[in-house]
Design a protein that fits this description.
- The complex is a heterodimer of chains A (about 140) and B (about 525).
- Chain A has about 140 residues and is mainly α.
- Helix content of chain A is about 55%, strand content about 0%.
- In chain A, helix 1 (about 5-15) packs across helix 4 (about 65-80), helix 2 packs across helix 4 (about 65-80) and helix 4 packs across helix 5.
- The longest helix of chain A has 15 residues, at about 80-95.
- The relative contact order of chain B is 0.20.
- Chain B has one domain: FAD/NAD(P)-binding domain.
- The radius of gyration of chain B is 22 Å and the shape is globular.
- Chain B has helices spanning about 15-25, 55, 65-70, 120-125, 135-145, 170-185, 230-235, 280-290, 360-365, 370-380, 425-445, 505-524, and strands at about 5-10, 35, 85-90, 190, 240, 245-250, 255-260, 270-280, 305-315, 330, 350-355, 385-390, 400-405, 415-420, 445-450, 490.
- Chain B is built from twelve helices and 16 strands.
- The longest helix of chain B has 21 residues, at about 425-445.
- In chain B, a hairpin with a 5-residue loop joins strand 7 (about 255-260) and strand 8 (about 270-280).
- Classes of the chains: A mainly alpha (about 140), B alpha/beta (about 525).
- The interface between A and B is large, with 56 and 70 residues.
Chain lengths: ~140, ~525
Amino acid sequence: MMSAFLDAVVDTLLPGEHQASSGASPLPSGTQAGVVLEAKSAEQDTILQMIAQRAGGEEAFARAPLSARTDVLASIEKESFDAFRTFVSNLLQDYYEAPSVLAAMGWREGAAQPLGHIVPEADEATLERLEKVRARGPLWRLAP
Amino acid sequence: MRLDPVDIAIVGAGFGGAAFAWRLSQQRPDLRILCVERGGFPDRSALPALRSDWQRAVLNEWATSPNLRLKSGRKSASADYPIDDTQSDFKPLMWNGVGGSTIAWAAHFPRLHPSDFRTRSLDGVGDDWPFSYADLEPYYDLNDAECGVSGLAGDPAYPPKPERAMPPVALGRMGMAAARGFDALGWHWWPVDAAINSRSDAGRAGCNHCGPCLIGCATGAKSSTDLTYWPRALGNGVEIRTHCVVHEVEIEGGQARGIRYHDESGQDILQPAQIVVIAGNGIGTPRLLLASGVDSPALGKNLMFHGAAYARGVFREELDGPVGPVGCALYSHEFYETDEARGFKRGVHLQVTRENALLLQATRLDKPWGEDAQRWLRDEFRHSVAVLVCNEDLPEEHNRVTLTDRIEADGLPGVKLEYRVSEHTRRALDFGLDRAEEMLRAAGAHRTVRIPVAPLTGWHLLGTARMGNDPTTSVTDASGRVHGVADLIIADGSVFPTVGAVNPGSTIGAVALKFADDLARALG
């Protein structure tokens, strides 16, 4: 399959952002994040062939605008929901673990341990709210 | 091969089996106690939280569903069998190995309320338990002490509990936002009891809030029975045989005589035992007992999960993001007890939980690809609060576990679930979702989202071998002894006649401890 076609599929599923609000880095597209569609399974090939066929060929799909490519993928999803979602899930796993994507979302890359995270303890206002609950007295129902 | 007899053979090393083994070995050190477990001990040095690709483990070999783990094709540390869940609105979740589902649980550790033991007497629904909250209370306390609980005494939603061993797990910005919402409405809220060390305790580390509790706790801060009950039980002389799949309870003349299992090499072994204890929980237990020919009208029926749904609020302020522990911050029992005006009996538990990891959040979107999905994620990541709504699922015979005609790779018949969300549960969840959204808006959420049913929440596998006094409607008596089969005991969540509206782990442990004491007394 043409690499331009495969890249277009990836970037239709994961288009990224042109710009992000509040000064964050925009999300990269799938290919910008390093996601590459490689031969994985017969099921994946079947989905890709369906996409190409529906679009009138690999080249036609690659040259189509994002909205038209999105429509093609939506129609394949409707037709072969489980297979399409499995195909998407595999790409999401590569994309949302990519360091550039995590950084754009303001999150840390790498293992969850051993660093962990700092989580704030209840502040004074919250503790005061808790005392109001305590002061209500028992809410539970007596049972023999 | 026939082995020398043991006094007690326990099947399953999860919460029930572990608590039972420890307590009985403490009370009766003279007994030869064996536990046979289909999986192995978890290898903490190989847990995915130590790798940079840990997020994808959540979707594959560490998925919460055994079916998804099997489907991933990756080698899993859980010794799974497939479960036909096509006819079930909730998907069964579990971990098969030493520790059972405590390896992969959130360690949310609430008790049932006193009224949960008396639903028939108080509200005319479900069934009364054959013992009361007061009867179980000492075992709740003992279980808390052995597992290690972080929390705060003084919760007015419960009868007084002892001081918790550790202070509550940090609420975080997310928890404080929710507390603001509950407070604005004048509703009850309280920091959760969690079987998680909020600081170093009992030789285990304090939680450092890494996030992915459900893929095993790499630091051991989260209590799981491989770290709590098992080391103490083994120290008391209990033997555990891992990677051994029990496929039959030997029953002769209405009496359990032992168990048959395949060991890791595939050898078939007969282990005679004076008493057999089954602790496979709501699916594994009826599967084994039905396969062994136990003929109880209630066996496999009355499967209860807890109805579960989510409401999520999106806030403009920055919150914590996908930190841990996932099951912790706080909960509300404002609507836990029956109020007939709501249109349903019993109540709902509102549990404020933390965000999912980014990849998991992305895969859980209705449409996880395209511009809209990415816009959605941008909007809510690090800015959302989720509220899990749990309701009291009531026992219904048509919700059940049955065997299939197929023999699975583990040598046991296949197992199938049939479970439908009832009209009662639908009303309760809708009520709970309305309240959750109300709270989130009061806390400042600018947008809320409802997930009316959350299928991948089926951790609580309960009720399929219920306790009771009538052998035609129950499987065991108040001590877990199976009606009509001498020397056969069940010690897990399958014995619950009803389930309250809260997570069952704390009660499973307490019930298993009670049953162990009952047996120790009966043995004289």
